Amino acid sequence: MLIIAHRGASGLAPENTLAAMEKALELGASAIELDVHRVEDQLVVIHDRWLQRHTDGHGLVHHSTLAALANLDAGQGQRVPTLWQVLECIDGRCDLNIELKGRNTNQPLIELLSQAQLQLGYQPQQFLISSFNHPKLMRLKQLQPDLKIGALTASCPLDYARFAEELGAYSVHIDVNFAEPEFIADAKRRGLKVFVYTVDEPEDMLELQRQGVDGVFSNLPDQARATLGSHTI
Ligand code: G3P
Ligand code: MG
Question: Which PROSITE patterns match (predicted)?
């Protein structure tokens, strides 16, 4: 089972920062999830729409500027990195699940992925792009049909696996609270990978493994590896 370091190794370093990415790599992660919003013409790596939970700043992320963000403390002296800085830091050493939040992210994403392949040597299959915003995923898939897409849901919609299949998604990303065996079986029958978030409890990890899910997002990837087996991270 794939263990995806959620917001980097966010149980061990400030989430979505370069320190969290480095920690995940140090632990041998083969995949990292992170969240991006658009600021000016760039994507920046931060979870919330608002700055105050993650940083010493205030206000909406998309109203901020790159210059202002660069001066904020994102915890333990870390900065809010741009996606490009994270791509440079990871340098192709693991796969990346980029979760699109906020507005107008598709165009800068497409440009950045192409630049990452040309300048940093990433392979296209290293990227999995997910979002709770399904119209956005549909538009992205139209723009880049080969892109691996992960359809996120925080609830349990009827016919969700069918929708993801019709979207041409690679995977469905579901909340651990709704990881029902019937849903998992339906998604897998349709050829979709099933990834479950956020899973930090060993008991949940083992049950999901028994149910045949393909991966879990964990804030504690080292603990997940200890629980699930050494080769899986
Ligand atoms: O991508 C999995 C998970 O990160 C989705 O929810 O709110 O933690 O970004 P959230
Ligand atoms: Mg996320």
Answer: GP_PDE
